[in-house]
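notes to self, project folder thing:

trying the whole complex as one job this time. last attempt i did each chain seperately and stitching them together was a nightmare. two parts in total, labels are on each line so i dont mix them up again. if this works i'll redo the older ones the same way
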Amino acid sequence: MTSEKRYADGETYGYQLNLKSLLKKPLDNCPEREIVYRDSRRLTYRTLNERIHRLASALRQWDVGANHTVAVMDVDSHRYLECFFAIPMMGASLQTVNWRLSPDQIVYTINHSEAQTMLVYRDFLPIVEKVRDRLKNIRHIIIMTDDGNMPSSPLNVAGEYDALLAAGEPAFDFPDLDEHTRATLFYTTGTTGNPKGVYFSHRQLMLHTLATAVEFGCYDTIGRFRSNDVYMPLTPMFHVHAWGMPYVATLLGAKQVYPGTYEPALILELIRRHGVTFSHCVPTILQMILTHADAKTTDLSNWKIVIGGARLPKGLARTARDRSIDIHAGYGMSETCPVMTLATPKEDALNKSSEETLDIIIKTGKPAPLVEVEVMDSKGRILPHDGKSTGEVVMRSPWLTAGYLKSPVNSAELWRNGWLHSGDVGYIDKENYLQITDRIKDVIKSGGEWISSLDLENILSQHESVLESAAIGIPDPKWGERPLMLVTLKPKYQGKVDADALRRHMTRAAQAGKLPRYGISERFEFVEAIAKTSVGKYDKKFLRQQYGASEPYNESAV
Amino acid sequence: MTSEKRYADGETYGYQLNLKSLLKKPLDNCPEREIVYRDSRRLTYRTLNERIHRLASALRQWDVGANHTVAVMDVDSHRYLECFFAIPMMGASLQTVNWRLSPDQIVYTINHSEAQTMLVYRDFLPIVEKVRDRLKNIRHIIIMTDDGNMPSSPLNVAGEYDALLAAGEPAFDFPDLDEHTRATLFYTTGTTGNPKGVYFSHRQLMLHTLATAVEFGCYDTIGRFRSNDVYMPLTPMFHVHAWGMPYVATLLGAKQVYPGTYEPALILELIRRHGVTFSHCVPTILQMILTHADAKTTDLSNWKIVIGGARLPKGLARTARDRSIDIHAGYGMSETCPVMTLATPKEDALNKSSEETLDIIIKTGKPAPLVEVEVMDSKGRILPHDGKSTGEVVMRSPWLTAGYLKSPVNSAELWRNGWLHSGDVGYIDKENYLQITDRIKDVIKSGGEWISSLDLENILSQHESVLESAAIGIPDPKWGERPLMLVTLKPKYQGKVDADALRRHMTRAAQAGKLPRYGISERFEFVEAIAKTSVGKYDKKFLRQQYGASEPYNESAV
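result (full assembly):
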């Protein structure tokens, strides 16, 4: 079979950006370099390439190709990497299913995407078995295993992944796709409503890959990711393509290590055994690794890690640097593919003191190539880079989702004035670093000023008695809103600390310039627990309802 | 003035690849880093950016914008760099005029491009004054000087460059262009016919810049070009945008040094004074620099240089490495923007002996990201990568010229079977390195085999008596063609060496495996001089006619 079109003399080859081109460099440079999955599997780039072709040849029998979506539920593995390439390269869409969602949400996302084929790792079979009859469009289910042994299942199963590859052909003629062909889609969840689908084309992923490679490879600063690095993702592959880094790692031909699920002991063992040098994760994963007993006996001095998904706490950054880990923060969203900004020091700041460096690397960051980041006020005006003008973070780049799948109302919220609206609030300093201060729906609007609820919480948390605190805006006849602080105290302080003590603490912070005066809360509520969402964040929507504040403003009006 | 369009809610910003985005990174990272022109001028990225805006604001008065071509005749300078950005960013085409052409050819190219505005460095005024009345479309001429002093000229001149910038506005609202907008054009010359125009869009230059930055920055091998490097081009800016490297250097925010014309003493002085670390040039320029007296007293151990435009001779590579210069070859053409392949060692070859490394770095090279290079036989079949199957080098990538400007016949020669045909002959080895062996029009076709005229010349040149030698194919009733060697002898060997001696030398080379047996020439002609073209290459077309060979085959039929 060949899809090669015939060209007339003088007819240019209209080169389209296509994920398949990423596989050429490692095959040229380092075909025998390894791709490792836990303890159980070692491929090379040569065998990866062959398996991608075999996978496509196997999937072809179920009409995987244009207008076909394949939903994948797998842990981080070499299989997932194969799917990252083979499925989009066939012209189909890869749906990366978030297996941390509730079964109902999983059903919703797979029905909403209209996926027809599904690849499921054996550990997730119980979920799929339970909801199989509600998956309306799924026609074929393929089981992924580590050992090739097909588990018994009441499902009507099309085959086992490795067996299908073995039966497939090592050659497959991937088509030359239009670069705007959709390559991937996945769902992002908010605190309310159904998950929303975002999607990315070959062009978007290719430009993201090239620009991210330039950002991490071409500038002389900390946190470099180049061909000699050993890469291990610690952000799940279902989550924004593991930041798109598996595509970058493949272009570089770097050794890749896939850890399955995230077990600290195994992660540390993989770091030791394979000499892992580059990873990325949320703060809690790093915290979990560093506090594991084996961390003490693991040399982490060659490990570079980028932190995203949540603000990098200064304390965690300090702890990591004390362990000689090369650490800095980054920023992006599901909607942005995701890489937008990185908090690397500029070259002229590389000799700063350790404390000054800490303050740089925990910022939200400077934009990557081809990324425009601005802060916009409620009237759609772009605000100056003065380190104080605060507004909604808005972005442009060639790899932002065109909208939410089949959701024009949400898409119209996302794209306004020709900018993608992040829902994050922040400012840009004179050095062009972005600093996000809050989610826009959590910001407290008092007398025309925006008060960051995160700032209030951070400051209050530094009082010795405070276990947790959440700041919410409640209606105020004079100021519009004023902050209310919900507080849980550490056991030994319970009943021994009052609102005055906490207010004095906040006043001192304001006197020290860490907080505007209008940010000092009048009202503190001591509670036994603060309501949280399923992913462990404060459920501020619920808290606002609980404390008498109707939703104070419409996000879309900001 | 603003060109900002209005966006409806939900309307995505259709990000188009545009050269203007390259200026963002240096402004974020290193606005005060320098851009230097000889002894006379120092800018920073901040002032570069301002001057680009001023230039656009000044040019706007002459309707420079869409459908307008601006011809620039300048030496390598900060001014040229400003034109590299400002003119395409306005939506106009930048024509980089090759001032080494004859006045007739210069007239031809400027008339053919239909350029309406011209920017001319004062040293080139005598040429322009002589041909002014033949430049049919030129309406405005702006003079570029180093000192701001306007020379007296019979030309009707619109102004002096720096004076126009001073009168311009520091703000200019560059439009969001369709990425397929033509950004640059220039002319390539062959041994026959008129110069041919090639042209590149914003999209092509942007993808070339990103992929070239990845190629030079992200792989751990020799010859790296990253933000801390100090860049000085030694390939003229009129020649394929100085390999597109000024765009890469700007994206990196590297310090840039522009040397004007190429005077070895000044080049060496600039290397010393500014700590230049990265350059590119043809072999003869490097030879000229290394043989200059000042080279002995200049530390070149931090200098990285990429050689293109002609084969890197092993002797020159060895000499450079003996001076601790980091050197390797690269390949590209005017038609290819140009970067295609680089002869960097793979990571697993970095520890090879110096002699083995020499053999790698003088190859034609491995493809850069997004570049496909193959070798094709006369029937359009792609040949195996076996180190011996020889055919025409064909290429695909997103940045190849769409054709020759207003020249469908030549364009149909260039683009056949959906591949750009280079006119070069070579093979690809098992390690995926391309080796070019000849120009297709100079290759000798004997008994169905292709014999590289360059190989024959190289081998004969190694005989102690030979000063120069040229190999041409002459008709042969049995074999189709057989090689004829034209030879000039060194003075002291004249009359003392005969054809038998040279034939024995070639036979020994064949026995040593350096030449196929069918490459041993039967016929040697001793001559006083070998005819050369105006650029110093053997004029093989003339030589073939002189020695009784009609043009042996049609290039387009290969």
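what i see at first glance: Residues 385 and 431 of chain A are 8 Å apart (CA to CA).
need to look closer tmrw
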